[in-house]
Amino acid sequence: MVPDIKICGLKTPEAVDRAIERGATYIGFIFFEKSPRHIEPMDAGALADRVRGRVKIVAVTVDADNEMLEEIIAFVKPDILQLHGHESPERVLNIKAVFGLPVMKAFSIRTADDLRKLEAYDGLADRFLLDAKAPAGSELPGGNGVSFDWKLLTALDDGVDYMLSGGLNKDNVGQALSGTTASGIDISSGVESAPGVKDLQMMDTFFDAIAQARSAEETDRKE
Ligand SMILES: O=C(O)c1ccccc1N[C@@H]1O[C@H](COP(=O)(O)O)[C@@H](O)[C@H]1O
Asked: Where is the N-(5'phosphoribosyl) anthranilate isomerase (PRAI) domain (predicted)?
């Protein structure tokens, strides 16, 4: 299966274009003021309008209220909402009912117990996103460039569909693709030269690493 590739935290037309040219199937905009990747809904809407229909557009929010979601949705018209906070199963249901958009619920993973939290959202969230728990002192629930122990994922039931994020980069994406059952991968700080600054060369190198991993997988399959 070819996994989805999401490049998150985009803020410029150049970075959006390069992500799509190189094969991103999802792009994410961050609406969280404490993040160096925060973008105003109107600016994200302009970027989204340039590429709408060519890629799935994800609005990333953290415990946003309905007023904020309304504003983001009005400007950006996202294909999917990524809920990266402590949204309860009831809140996920409520957001889906009010806004009629698919929801990707993010979970912070450090231990096997953290994976049990997914159960309460089964059948409610349209997709799961598994990210590492934020390091102590970080104000960001995501975008910290840290990974969790992917070996924990072997405890997940076979049918659980998830996108993998947290600390992905050119050096570990091959292992993420071959060593997990993730149906998608999601990267933000691993293609940045400074917090919030996407680096086109690093994006190229990341996509090259994916291509290399896929070609190695294809060779293995034929042998
Ligand atoms: O990137 C952020 O600043 C951010 C802020 C608030 C919520 C989520 C955020 N990013 C998400 O974090 C992961 C991966 O980040 P990284 O590759 O480890 O830097 C990704 O899902 C982003 O959507």
From this structure: 5-208
